[in-house]
Every structure is written in C-alpha cells, then in structure tokens.
Amino acid sequence: MSVRRFVILGALLAIFAIQVSAETVDGMPLHIEKLSDKAIRVWVGDYKSTTSVIALSTQKGIVVVDTTGWHSLDAKLREVIARELGRNDFKLLINTHEHGDHTFGNQVYADCTIVAHESCAKGMKARMGNQAEIAELYTNRISQLEEQLKAADGNGEAAAKLAEDLHFAKLTVSDRGSFKMALPTKTFKDQMKLDMGDMTLELYYAGGIHSASDIFILVPEEGLLLTGDVMADNWLSDRPGCLATFMIRSGVERDVPLLLKNWKSLIARKDEIKHYIPGHWNGELSQEGFENRFNYVKKMYSWMEHEIQAGKKFSEIEAELALDKKFPELVGSPGFYPERHATSVRTVWCDTTGAKSAAESLYTMIGKAGLEKSLKKLQVARAEESNDFYFDEAEFNALGYRFINEEKLKEAIAVFEINAKMNPESWNVYDSLAEAHMLSGDTELAIKLYKKSIEMNPDNENGKQKLEEIKQAKNSLNK
User: Cβ(113)–Cβ(185) under 8 Å?
Assistant: First the structure.
C-alpha cells in the first residue's frame, strides 16, 4: 500500500471515529479497543498520534503498559480502565521506553510497582527539562494555534486537527505545575519474566533504535507482542508522529548483540504471536514487518564490518549500502527514507569504528590548541577520510551557534564556512553563515549570503526577514 493510500485511509478512519465516538474524556473522543478477553487498549483523540495505553486483567491484578504525556489525562484513563475491566486493583505499570509521552503520566500509578529497562530512569531525567520553560513554549504555541484555528474558520478536518492540537497544548501547560516525575522502581538489563498468575509478561531489551531503553513485551497467553515506538509498517493516519521513522539513531546507547539476540528469539516464537502492537494508536505492525526490520539492523552491522575490514573508505561504504541497492524491498516502506537510512549507515559506521563527532571534537580542540591548528587537523582528517571522525551538517551548524552564544564570532564564522564547504547544496548553511557575518558587522556579505540561501530555498522566511531588517536599518541610518 502506498503512503498516499495510508493518508486517505487515515483520513477516512479519523472521520469515522468522530462519527462513532460517543464518549469523551477531557473533551476528547475516547477510543477503547479490545485486544483479547483480558486486554484492552485506550486512547483519546482522532488525529494527534497520542500514546495508546494497554491494560491487562490478570489473576494478580491490573497491569498497565505506558502512560501518556499528561498525568491529568492518565488519571481519567485509569478510571476508564477500572470501569472496563470491572476491577480497581492496579499492580504494575510498565514503561516501554523513556520518552515523556510514555512516562510523564507515571505519577498516576505511583501506588504500583513501575517496571522498565535499567536505562529508562536516566533517559527520563534527561528529558524532563525545565517545566517553566516548557509551559512558556506551549503558551506561545497556544497563541499560534488559536490564530490558525480562527483563520481556518471551521473548515472541516483542518479545523478539527487544529482544535485537537490546541486542546493538547493547553493540557500540557495546565499539567506542568503539578507534574511529578515517577521513576521506575523495578528494572532489568536483558530479560525479565513477571508471573501474574494466569498470565506471564516477558520483557526483552530492545534498545538503540528509538531510544536507549526500548523494550519488547510478550504476553504469550494473550498472543500479544507490544513493541513500543520502535517500529510500525502501516500508518493509519497522515500524522504518524513517533512511528514516522525507523532508523539506527546516533547518540543513543545500545548493545547490538543483545538487541539482535532478543529480537531473534521473538521471531522464533512467531506462532505464539497473534497481534503486534505499536505504542501509538495510529500504527500497525505485521510479523513480516517485524522480521524485515530485524534483518535490516542485522545486515547493516554485518555488511559494515565486512566493508571496513576490506579497507573501504566511508564514502565508498555509503554508496555501497544505499537503501535502493541493498534493501530494495524496504524502499517506500513506512519509516524508511533515503536520508534517514544515510544516518543509519553513518551511525553503524561510528558504532563499528568508534568514530567521534567532528563538531564536538573541534570544540574541544579549539579550546586546547586554538582555531587555526584545530581547523587544519580536522581538514586533514576529512581529506584522508579518517575513521576517527564523522562530519554532520546539523552538528556543525549547532556548534557555530554555540560559538555565537559565547560571543566568539571569529570561531562561529570559521565553523559555518567549513560547513558551507562540506555541504554546498544546503541552503541552511549559507543562512547561518550570513547571520554570523551580520552580527560581525559585515552586512554586505550577509546580504549576499542571505540572497544565495533564498535563491536555493525560496521558502526561507528567516532569510527574507533578516534581509528586511538589514534594509530597514540602512534606511534608518540614511534619514
């Protein structure tokens, strides 16, 4: 099925859901899906890719898998779960991974044992952020959505989507003042079995694809495999959210041999699995899709090791492992894009060679050896295609702005210039370089670079705005 058909199907499902959703929770349509005689899945909304909360009715009590990003909403969903299952003895909460849209409602289940992978707590703390800043960010977002909704003038589905986004933005702001982080109280590294009497929950480490703390949860008695946000091979809406991409992410801790071991063991038990359940309501996963993605990860690491041992440079490996060349069966499959695959290739290369970020290394080197010597060393490494570093446009762009924030314009300009030489087809590198020159007082060069960026990307609104600011400043001086 093509992506276009996914979008159309999603739109039809959303419209149908609005028509049949008789019950609401916190003003949003409530959805309840029966997965088995003892398992349900609940979520709210028709458009936003919200987390679906799984509830299992076991002999030893109710087990809940994941919470949403809003604890006030989870408190109400807990009541719905109790009502639907006809009991109120909640015993366990399991987090499939660390991200806030699966853990920020944990406080609602603080009376339960909270189970997760051992790296989950670290990830939760790192993502908590400043709650006041988050509230301010979403307050600004609310104003933008209100203006957009007003402009939509009740125009069908577009207005419905905006209204739903606005609702959740307001919920985010209102929840921040009473948010309390509830960390896992029981963790594991590789596998864990939870005996719930008439039901066994088997937890498997699956980290390194979506987050460091990803896990799979097998419930053999119910024929269920819960896969969190690691993957989906079918989108039921045009807003796949966390399920939009399948890639081997850089900057994520992972134990690849352990991941592949656990994944393979679940593939071997496919006859026990009736339903593969992703962590969001608008994604589906098939047994074939589950295996295809395992093979992708396995082959990527195997082929990479072979190519490196053969003495090939990264540019050669990158061309050899192109998505359409090595994985033609995955081209067009949900979650796979050439640019994301390229990131996966580079990440696997870094995992295999131990290569470090050139941008991060440059920052450290400049602090020790100065700008000129550090730039020369990095340029030699790039020319020789050394396995010591990898070069990423976004990371160099971020480094340039880091120097701007430190009021080191000379260093910022040098970094942006390197980025432009490495990525001459990117409009954004010229936009950033223009800003650095504008701040240094060289407005003529800034104008030239902004115009080049806009020529490459006519939708570069930031560049247009900066050119207008320069023009107004010149007119003010000429008066």
Answer: yes
